[in-house]
Amino acid sequence: MAESLTLTVSLRGTRDVRGTYQLFRLTGLLDAFSEPAFRKVMTKYVEAGPNNIILDLATIDFVDSSGLGALVQLVKKATTEGGTVQVVTNPRVTQTVKLVRLEKFLSLQPSVEDAIAHLENPPSE
Asked: What's one Pfam family the UniProt record gives for this protein (predicted)?
């Protein structure tokens, strides 16, 4: 059962814990205004576990540099806790991420299903 998250007026979503991962579906704006609340809430949930995170940003309208910084911090936090972060994107988010060359670091995935498959069968390096 997904629980509802209201991070700010402009950023909302749901959290669903499924076995070895948490699925977050967010909508709205991940920007300088919403970034502090996003970072605080996500840090709490990564620490609570499970520490593998799937972040569905497919319906996000806008990500700015503050939002990208928060995503980078989330990946670092999850990695420190022994987990991973998969980011499901849309064309706008993908374009922003690629502008700053973070697509590999943020492990961009085209769909939630692909992110789950990636978690269950990680590519060998």
From this structure: STAS
